[in-house]
């Protein structure tokens, strides 16, 4: 009978279990490497070893029966792990750990060792039972994973460093370009200012001053964009305050009161220059023509959001539209009309009795992409 | 009428330096010198003892207006006003400077700023409305607020 034949292999195992014990047969035949040692004998020798252990370690049964297990250790075995094992044995505790062991032919393998004391009912320690599992592949996979993780982390930090440097370079470039734009705008207005001083013809002088105001309005846009630290959105109210204050002061007229009704309203930056130029045209025109000599007055500027639209109102209590040459054919009028087209804006000119009221309404968002048929 | 201010212009763009000179003189003040580099500016500041120095940040040969401010800040009675397209580069304390006029400035801004600065120098604290387009240094902001 197979059971009887099989048991012969465990003849030397002196346990209290009887012959033909199916559990003993199972231990013998399992693919899990197992040994049993006897701590009551000198140096805790091996008293049982199963086939699987012989297969794993490469030793024959005769070579290892009666020896202490430490022959499995070698130069690469972690002393700390050995110490833990020794402490568990002395304390009669079970222990599970991965330890580097060596086969008879000297090749190392990672051994997932489980060691556990076996006592009888009286509490006497009889044996230690140990099972071994070759987990070299698992440990290698773990090491590979750890290595890959480290390599990945190195690459990520390298890439992060590159991107940080690229961003710093880009930020510096934007800074530099911004600086140049503003310096050049300042130079253009410097040249216009200085040239204007030498012009005596009033019409030519007036034309030069108008050009200066246009350049200065664009300069104000750039100065404001830079100060706000937001180069994508532009607050029209903030601009209107600077522009109107600047123009009224520049007009040299102390008898014109400026009334501002401003609520923050942002537009995309690409709309800022045309909006700025348009407002500059309307305000300079009002200051120049609405308040003729000796006629004091009031100029009000309102900037308010109106849903998806931006509403700008310029109201003066001056001489009214007939006196203002921002009529058909003038360059100023053409400029305003063209800018309005660019902005998809509607402009309503109405008599304010006295004076003029100009209502501008334009979409705040950038026009959607049109399909080309 | 008040006594005119003595002003040093420190700017490496000749065109801008020239315009500043004209605007300052138009307002009735005296330009005591125009410097292109930091070293030149520091030497002139010691020689001329101006009331105000208008100082650009980027100067000839890569020199910096901040060095001018550092060298001049302990010089009695010299008020530094930065005029720069790089106002964001100014340190928190303006290196002892009183104010900054960011570029590009309009003629009206300069015309509004000069009378204000004149009050700062001659009759502090200034009572005139704060000009748009000029920013006071936090230390001066606090000083004028405490004085008024």
UniProtKB/TrEMBL annotation, chain A:
<dbReference type="InterPro" id="IPR005467">
    <property type="entry name" value="His_kinase_dom"/>
</dbReference>
<dbReference type="InterPro" id="IPR000014">
    <property type="entry name" value="PAS"/>
</dbReference>
<dbReference type="InterPro" id="IPR036890">
    <property type="entry name" value="HATPase_C_sf"/>
</dbReference>
<dbReference type="InterPro" id="IPR001610">
    <property type="entry name" value="PAC"/>
</dbReference>
<feature type="domain" description="PAS">
    <location>
        <begin position="43"/>
        <end position="92"/>
    </location>
</feature>
<keyword id="KW-0418">Kinase</keyword>
<dbReference type="InterPro" id="IPR011495">
    <property type="entry name" value="Sig_transdc_His_kin_sub2_dim/P"/>
</dbReference>
<keyword id="KW-0808">Transferase</keyword>
<feature type="domain" description="Histidine kinase">
    <location>
        <begin position="176"/>
        <end position="366"/>
    </location>
</feature>
<dbReference type="Pfam" id="PF13426">
    <property type="entry name" value="PAS_9"/>
</dbReference>
<keyword id="KW-0288">FMN</keyword>
<keyword id="KW-0157">Chromophore</keyword>
<dbReference type="GO" id="GO:0016301">
    <property type="term" value="F:kinase activity"/>
</dbReference>
<keyword id="KW-0285">Flavoprotein</keyword>
<dbReference type="Pfam" id="PF02518">
    <property type="entry name" value="HATPase_c"/>
</dbReference>
<dbReference type="Pfam" id="PF07568">
    <property type="entry name" value="HisKA_2"/>
</dbReference>
<dbReference type="InterPro" id="IPR000700">
    <property type="entry name" value="PAS-assoc_C"/>
</dbReference>
<dbReference type="InterPro" id="IPR035965">
    <property type="entry name" value="PAS-like_dom_sf"/>
</dbReference>
<protein>
    <submittedName>
        <fullName>Blue-light-activated histidine kinase</fullName>
    </submittedName>
</protein>
<dbReference type="InterPro" id="IPR003594">
    <property type="entry name" value="HATPase_dom"/>
</dbReference>
<feature type="domain" description="PAC">
    <location>
        <begin position="93"/>
        <end position="147"/>
    </location>
</feature>
From TrEMBL, chain B:
<dbReference type="InterPro" id="IPR011006">
    <property type="entry name" value="CheY-like_superfamily"/>
</dbReference>
<feature type="modified residue" description="4-aspartylphosphate">
    <location>
        <position position="56"/>
    </location>
</feature>
<dbReference type="InterPro" id="IPR050595">
    <property type="entry name" value="Bact_response_regulator"/>
</dbReference>
<dbReference type="InterPro" id="IPR001789">
    <property type="entry name" value="Sig_transdc_resp-reg_receiver"/>
</dbReference>
<protein>
    <submittedName>
        <fullName>Protein-glutamate methylesterase/protein-glutamine glutaminase</fullName>
    </submittedName>
</protein>
<dbReference type="Pfam" id="PF00072">
    <property type="entry name" value="Response_reg"/>
</dbReference>
<feature type="domain" description="Response regulatory">
    <location>
        <begin position="6"/>
        <end position="118"/>
    </location>
</feature>
<keyword id="KW-0597">Phosphoprotein</keyword>
């Amino acid at each position: 009978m197979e059971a009887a034949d099989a048991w012969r292999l465990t003849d030397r195992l002196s346990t209290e279990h009887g012959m033909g014990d199916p559990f003993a047969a199972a231990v013998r035949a399992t693919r899990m490497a197992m040994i049993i040692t006897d701590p009551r004998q000198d140096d805790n020798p091996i008293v049982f070893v199963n086939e699987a252990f012989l297969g794993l370690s490469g030793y024959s049964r005769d070579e290892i029966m009666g020896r202490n297990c430490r022959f499995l250790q070698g130069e690469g075995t972690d002393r700390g792990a050995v110490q833990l094992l020794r402490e568990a044995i002395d304390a009669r505790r079970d222990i599970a750990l991965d330890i580097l062991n060596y086969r008879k032919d000297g090749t190392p393998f990672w051994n997932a060792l489980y060691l556990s004391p076996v006592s009888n009912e009286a509490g006497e320690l009889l044996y230690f039972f140990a099972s071994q599992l070759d987990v070299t592949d698992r440990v290698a996979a773990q090491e590979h994973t750890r290595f890959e993780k480290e390599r990945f982390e190195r690459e990520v930090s390298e890439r992060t460093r590159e991107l940080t440097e690229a961003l710093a370079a880009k930020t510096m470039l934007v800074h530099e370009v911004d600086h140049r734009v503003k310096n050049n705008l300042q130079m253009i207005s410097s040249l216009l200012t200085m040239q204007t001083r030498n012009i005596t013809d009033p019409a030519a002088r007036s034309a030069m001053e108008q050009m200066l105001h246009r350049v200065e309005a664009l300069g104000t846009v750039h100065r404001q964009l830079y100060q706000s630290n937001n180069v994508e959105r532009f607050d029209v109210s903030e601009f209107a305050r600077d522009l109107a204050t600047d123009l009224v002061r520049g007009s040299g007229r102390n008898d014109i009161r400026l009334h501002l009704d401003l609520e923050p309203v942002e537009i995309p930056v690409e709309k800022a220059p045309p909006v700025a130029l348009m407002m500059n045209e309307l305000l300079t025109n009002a200051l120049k023509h609405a308040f003729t000599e000796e006629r004091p007055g009031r100029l009000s500027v309102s900037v308010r959001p109106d849903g998806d639209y931006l509403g700008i109102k310029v109201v003066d209590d001056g001489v009214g539209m007939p006196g203002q040459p921002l009529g058909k054919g003038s360059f100023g009028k053409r400029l305003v009309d063209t800018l309005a087209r660019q902005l998809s804006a509607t402009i309503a000119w109405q008599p304010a009795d006295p004076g003029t009221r100009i209502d501008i309404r334009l979409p705040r968002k950038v026009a959607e992409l049109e399909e080309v048929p | 009428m008040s006594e005119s201010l003595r002003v040093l212009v420190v700017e490496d763009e000749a065109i801008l330096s020239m315009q500043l000179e004209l605007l300052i003189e138009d307002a009735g003040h005296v330009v005591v010198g125009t410097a292109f580099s930091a070293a030149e500016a520091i030497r002139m500041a010691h020689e001329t003892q101006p009331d105000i120095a208008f100082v650009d940040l980027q100067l000839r040969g890569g020199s910096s207006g901040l060095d001018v401010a550092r060298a001049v800040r302990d010089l009695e009675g010299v008020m530094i006003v930065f005029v720069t397209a790089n106002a964001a580069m100014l340190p928190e304390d303006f290196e002892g400077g009183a104010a900054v006029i960011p570029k590009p400035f309009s003629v009206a801004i300069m015309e509004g700023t000069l009378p204000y600065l004149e009050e700062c120098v001659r009759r502090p604290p200034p009572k005139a409305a704060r000009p748009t387009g000029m920013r006071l240094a936090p230390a001066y902001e606090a000083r004028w607020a405490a004085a008024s």
